[in-house]
Amino acid sequence: MHVKAIKMRWAVGGVNYCYLLSSEDKTKSWLIDPAEPLEVLPALSEEEMRSIVAVVNTHHHYDHSGGNVTLTTTLRKRHNNVKVIAGSDASFGVSVVPQHLDVFKLGNLEVVCIRTPCHTQDSICYYVKDSETAQNCLFSGDTLFSGGCGRFFEGSAVDMDVSLNLRLLEGIGERNWPLTKVYPGHEYSKGNAEFIRKFVYKNPGDNTSFDEFEKYCNTHEVTTGHFTVLDELKYNPFMRLEDPKIREAVGDKIGKWSRDKVMEKLRFMKNTM
Ligand SMILES: [Zn+2]
C-alpha cells in the first residue's frame, strides 16, 4: 500500500489533505477528496494519473468534493472508466454510493466503507487493508481527526458517539486498531492538542500517551498517517467519554452524565475555545 498526502488550502488556513491511495504495485489508485485541482494535479505524475480508477469523497462539503468534475474530466482523457464514489448525490458527478460495510477491491487492497453520519449525513470513512504487507489505514474525512472529531453539522452528539465509537471501531475490528494508521481530512492535530492540554489533561503525567501526542504535534507540521486508531483511543477525548478526567473537564463531578451529554459538552467547549 502507498499513501501520498497532498496539501490543499494551506495558504488560506483550510489545511485540507487530498490523498492518493495506491495498490502495492502502484497500478491501481483512488484519489480521495481532490477538492483543489490546481494544487492536486501538479502533485501527480503522469503514471499516477493513469493509475487512478476512482475519485472518492469522504463527504460532500466543497473543500472535499469541489474538484470532482475537473478531476474526472482530466482523468477521463487518459481512460474512460474513472468512477466517482461518494456517500450521496450531493457530491458532484457521483456514480457509486456505497452502503455501510460495502467492500471494494483496489489491486491487492481491500477497502471497507464505514458510513459514519453526523458531521454530514453522507460521511464515509474508508478502511483499507493490504493482505500482502499487513498495512492498514483509515481515511477518516471530517469524522475523526487526530485528537478530535468533526463538528456535528448534520447530526447529534448521539450520532457522533455511535459513528465514532461503535460503527468505526467495530468496522475496523479490535485486533486491527494498533495496525491502522489514521489519515484525516484536515491537519488539526496541533490545535486539538492545545484544547486537550487546556481543558482535559492539564498537567504533564495526567496522560502520558497525550504527552507524547502533544510533543509530536508541536514538532511536526504534518502528522497525518503517524498515529493509529489505538493511539487515538488513548488520548482523543471524543473517544474517551468514560474517562474520569474527561468527565471532570465537562463538569460532570460525580460521573453520572449520559455519554451523549459528555460528547455534546466536549464539542461545545471545543467550538467555543
Ligand atoms: Zn466537512
Automatic annotation (TrEMBL):
GO biological process assignments: methylglyoxal catabolic process to D-lactate via S-lactoyl-glutathione
Annotated pathway: Secondary metabolite metabolism; methylglyoxal degradation; (R)-lactate from methylglyoxal: step 2/2
EC number of the protein: 3.1.2.6
InterPro entries, per database record: Clx_II_MBL, HAGH_C, Metallo-B-lactamas, RibonucZ/Hydroxyglut_hydro
Cofactors (names): Zn(2+)
Entry-linked Gene3D superfamilies: Ribonuclease Z/Hydroxyacylglutathione hydrolase-like
Catalytic reaction(s) noted: (R)-S-lactoylglutathione + H2O = (R)-lactate + glutathione + H(+); an S-(2-hydroxyacyl)glutathione + H2O = a 2-hydroxy carboxylate + glutathione + H(+)
GO cellular component, one term: mitochondrial matrix
Assigned keywords, A-Z: Hydrolase, Metal-binding, Zinc
Pfam families: HAGH_C, Lactamase_B
Start and end residues of each Metallo-beta-lactamase domain: 15-186
Annotated GO MF terms: hydroxyacylglutathione hydrolase activity; metal ion binding
Domain of life, per lineage: Eukaryota
Family: Belongs to the metallo-beta-lactamase superfamily. Glyoxalase II family.
Protein role: Thiolesterase that catalyzes the hydrolysis of S-D-lactoylglutathione to form glutathione and D-lactic acid. Involved in the metabolism of methylglyoxal, a toxic compound for yeast proliferation, by converting methylglyoxal to lactate via S-D-lactoylglutathione by sequential enzyme reactions catalyzed by glyoxalase I and glyoxalase II.
Protein name as it appears in the record: hydroxyacylglutathione hydrolase
Naturally occurring in which organism (per UniProt): Vanderwaltozyma polyspora (strain ATCC 22028 / DSM 70294 / BCRC 21397 / CBS 2163 / NBRC 10782 / NRRL Y-8283 / UCD 57-17) (Kluyveromyces polysporus)
